[in-house]
Design goal:
alpha/beta; Rossmann fold; 2 domains; five-stranded parallel sheet; three-stranded antiparallel sheet
Length: about 290
């Protein structure tokens, strides 16, 4: 598979990527991680490519594509390219109907079920966690129940994303005003320290409940190790995939969810036409899925 050669212009900006080059790069990205770029996204991919080509000193699309596929060096560059092409829009307390259902109905249900068998360990996965707001929202909610519902329980919250840059931001735990815009005052005052105007530092108490790592949801081998979750959240991630990729990734989620667990998507997403193994569970303002 070869790219057509199109050199950069003298000012350093890239010329238009040809249809053939676009399709080849699109197919390569798709085979690596399942992210699919429709032809309508050609300009978006082209602009992100230009930044990486300039950074690596590539003189043509063919040159850059060779670098991406060149062993260890290419693997590192591929991660940087994936960072460029994945956008990350999130905030704390993003989906209130889901959180209310979790607190009032679903969490007590799971706790009662696991308590009967004497297994006091709760596992939550934020897939496509971006810079950590969703995972840390869960941590704050659960910390409020440490003295009552979750007394003597082990809590594990795992955040994963294909974008290594945002994983680093999640581990750092420092946020701006936009990220905390939906955070209730109670949680904002209790679990954040505003070090300066618009700079909010998350408390160590919250940070230690969540761990973050880079993960490609399309990687069959690595997904085998993401086992036994009581709740899986995957908001606005499947929009990057076509139907075949969605089916593959959702099957991984199904396999890694406890028999009584719950799977959450974004507010405007559904599994219609993607997977028929889940059952829809409705609650005020939204719905979730379980086996």
């Amino acid at each position: 598979m070869a790219f057509e050669t199109k050199a950069l212009d003298p000012k350093g900006s890239s010329q238009k990527i040809s249809d053939k080059d676009f399709e080849q790069l699109r197919d390569y990205i798709y085979n690596v991680c399942g992210i699919y770029f429709h032809s309508s996204k050609k300009y978006f991919l082209e602009s992100r490519l230009a930044r990486r080509m300039e950074s690596t000193g590539s003189k043509s699309h063919a040159d850059y594509f060779q670098q991406v596929r060149a062993g260890a060096t290419g693997s590192a560059e591929l991660k940087k390219l994936l960072d460029e092409i994945t956008t990350n829009e999130t905030c704390f307390f993003r989906n209130l109907p889901q959180l209310n259902a979790l607190e009032t109905k679903l969490l007590p249900e799971i706790i009662a079920h696991k308590g009967k068998i004497g297994f006091k360990k709760l596992r939550i996965w934020s897939a496509g966690s971006s810079s950590g707001e969703e995972a840390y929202t869960m941590a704050m909610l659960l910390l409020e129940k440490r003295a009552t519902l979750l007394k003597d329980w082990i809590i594990e919250i795992v955040g994963t994303d294909i974008n290594e840059t945002v994983i680093g931001q999640a581990k750092e735990g420092i946020y701006n005003s936009y990220s905390v815009r939906n955070t209730p005052d109670f949680y904002l005052k209790k679990y954040f320290k505003e070090e300066s105007a618009g700079r909010f530092v998350l408390s160590p108490e919250v940070k230690k409940l969540a761990s973050f790592s880079q993960l490609n949801l399309y990687d069959d081998n690595k997904m085998l190790f993401m086992k036994s979750f009581d709740f899986i959240f995957c908001a606005n991630v499947l929009i990057y995939f076509d139907t075949a990729s969605k089916s593959k990734v959702v099957q991984h989620f199904y396999n890694n969810l406890q028999p009584y667990g719950y799977f959450f998507l974004g507010q405007s997403e559904s599994l219609h036409g993607v997977n028929d193994k889940f059952r829809t569970v409705h609650f005020p303002g939204g719905f979730t899925y379980n086996k």
